[in-house]
Amino acid sequence: MLGDIEENRVFRSKKELMTCLSIMSMRKKFQYKVFKSNTSFIVVRCVHPSCSWRVRANKLIESEYWMVTKHVNKHTCPTDFKTTRRRQATSWVVGECIKRRFINPGRVFRPRDVMDDMKQRYGVELSYSVAWRGRECAYENLRLGTPEQSYNLLPGYLHMLMQTNPGSVVNLEVTDGNKFQYLFIAFAASIQGFSYCRPVISIDATHLKGKYRGVLFTAVCHDANQQIFPLAIGVGDSENDAAWTWFLKRVKDVFGENPALVIVSDRHRSIRSAVEEAFPRAFHGICIYHLLNNLKTKFKSKNKELEQHYIAAAKAYNLQEFHVLFYTLCSAVPGAKEYLESVGLDRWTRSHAPCRRYNIMTTNISESFNAVLVKVRELPITAFVNEVRLLCQRWFQQRRTKANGCSSRMSTDVENKLEQRRDRAQTMDVICTDQYTFDVVDGDRNYCVDMALWTCTCRKFQLDQLPCDHVLAVVRKTQYDPYDLCSLYYTREFWCETYRGVIQPIPHISSWVVPPPISTFQLNPPDVRTVAGRRRKRRLPSMGEELTTPKCSRCKGKGHNRATCQNPIALRQSEPGPSLVSPIAGASSATELGHQTYPSPSMPPPVAAATAPPDVGHPTDPSPTMPSLIAAATAGPHFGQTLADS
Question: Are 591 and 605 in contact (CB under 8 A)?
Fold first, then answer.
């Protein structure tokens, strides 16, 4: 709130002065007009010709500030002069009044909501067009200008990002005519923290929904607590070979190529060729759920057993278990064996993978990261990048606090997992064969554990780098420390080091200091073909994907939720109590009265007497009146007495 106008009050600009005047006039229910105005002073008066209210303000010398020099704060206009429609409620003033409502990018505030809000707060009635334009003005204020202005602002923002976060890597590619082409951002805190994460990177792409569209590329991994750790983001024109190759080469330049590195993605052709070019030594695994959707589509199968056998085979740790499940799968779906083998068993199964994928068999962490940004992707480019920075900044701070407050040797998630495995290990028998080898009996099966080689025949110990149930059973009988058998990637120390870096904030645009080569650079938006109609916001389902239809908890209908439900709800019927007239003895579930049949509901049917009085509608009358029904119900030997008793 800008407050009221007072003498000697200083405003930072003429626009701020006029905004304060307009909001004050709406709040105090009067209207004004500009009497005189130029670059050095302004005089405003009440619109009523006989009113003495007026304000004069002058611009300060050699400054952009304006000061109120005179204020006659007394209205002499008649009280009936006030109306609900005020000339000061223009679109840009409405935008200033409601812009605080749009701080959250996911906030839905329709023009009708703007009209109701202005009516409730200021008593101003707006037209739909003014409310819509006011909302657009609020968007521009909070989203750093129009989409075109946002592209022009991007170079300066990226400069300030590198100044406030030294060590961050930013790449901006332009085409002829200084038109935007590619953008890559990796924060210094992410670059520092990746050294303490498991070397498995999940990559994915999703569409931006702004005016100039584009595609968002993401690279994320898991931290020690199984949470999403963002590595880098990129923006390109579309999901093609050139864009994916450019993005992955930037990822390699920043994070390097670890010999044990694993890249997990869907089966997009451009990703496969880009990974082969950018990471020739890395292992490229595919998401098992994307392959499952392809499998369903190819064989046109919705068999639940197919899905169960496939998921179990993909997640199997040892080869014997995989072959049993894979044979069952191929027997149920003819042709599936050749199809899955052509994809490559090592790319979608844990048991055949040449490198450790740990527990990252899908691109769920990438999909989840994209889902968090679902509303942010509608923003212009600079506002979008800023929201991503704010999200990462908030995540780092929250998880740094959580990691530093952890008192155990392992992360919270790993501690819970080890506790569950300890409970299952209590029922196992352990037979010592020599100093390092143990035979663990788990029900009707036995497993061999070698503590010298850190192996178990179930292979969970080797592939996940965490003690399995059988190893913990051995630990229970020996003096081994279970925490010494865990990978350093799960420890509290690595968890804290992952988030040691800090993503610093960026000051307001009015405080930016950008050198001339960057400040004078004019970045233009990319060329896009405008499609008629509204821009699509809901993504197209992937091949074979089964979309879930939302169900309303209010009306139990499908296709919407409780917040958007507009269906009328019937009043809940009360429990049937004693009626004035008891039902006819021997009446069935459909009670017949004369020639009319009424279904037997919770509300009793109209009752006819044995001999209908003259004012009661005849049974052939399809609609007896309410007075006649009441008369019939109260007619008889005694009011309230049953017909059988009579």
Answer: yes
Burial class (CB in 10 A: 0-12, 13-18, 19+), 512: middle
Provide φ and ψ at 66, rounded to 5°.
Answer: -125, 140
d(CA 237, CA 580) in angstroms, rounded, equals 76
> What is the pLDDT at residue 123?
82
Asked if residues 208 and 187 have their Cβ atoms less than 8 Å apart, the reply is no
Please give the Cα distance from 329 to 337 (Å, whole number): 8
**H or E stretch including 447?**
strand 445-450
What does the block give as tokens for 202? 């999940």
Strands, E, within 187-342: which ranges?
A: 200-207, 215-222, 228-236, 262-265, 283-286
Tokens at 17, concatenated = 């002065």
Residues with Cβ within 8 Å of residue 1, at least 6 apart in sequence: 23
pLDDT for residue 596 is more than 80: no
Q: Which residues pair with 183 in a beta bridge?
A: 172, 235
Bridge partner residues of 201 (DSSP): 263
**What are the residues facing 445 on neighbouring strands?**
442
Q: How do the residues of the chain divide into helix, strand and coil, expressed in percent and rounded to 5?
A: 40, 15, 45
- pLDDT at residue 138, rounded to an integer: 80
The answer to whether the CB of 81 falls within 8 A of the CB of 53 is no
Which parts of 560-641 fold into alpha helices (H)? 626-634
Digit-coded pLDDT (tens) for 103-129: 666 666 788 888 888 888 888 888 898
What's the sign of the alpha-carbon dihedral 128, 129, 130, 136?
A: positive
| pLDDT given for residue 627 in this prediction | 40
- Long-range CB contacts (within 8 A, 24+) of 171-175: 171/250, 172/523, 173/246, 174/523, 175/526
What does the alpha-carbon distance between residue 53 and residue 82 come to, in Å, rounded to a whole number?
14
Sorting pLDDT into bands at 50, 70 and 90, what band is 624? very low
Which residues touch 251 (CB under 8 Å, ≥6 apart)? 186, 201, 203, 219, 231, 232, 278
pLDDT in tens, 303-350: 777 888 999 999 999 999 999 999 999 888 888 899 999 999 999 999
Residues sharing a CB contact under 8 Å with residue 530, sequence separation 6 or more, in sequence order: none
CB 585 within 8 A of CB 560: no
Provide, rounded to the nearest whole percent, the portion of the chain with pLDDT above 70.
82
Cα radius of gyration (the chain): 36
* Residue pair 425/476 in contact by the 8 Å Cβ criterion: yes
Q: Is the pLDDT of residue 71 over 60?
A: yes
Strand order in the sheet with 429-432: 429-432, 437-442, 445-450, 455-456
pLDDT of residue 543: 52
Predicted TM-score (pTM) of the model is: 0.74
Sequence letter at residue 224: A
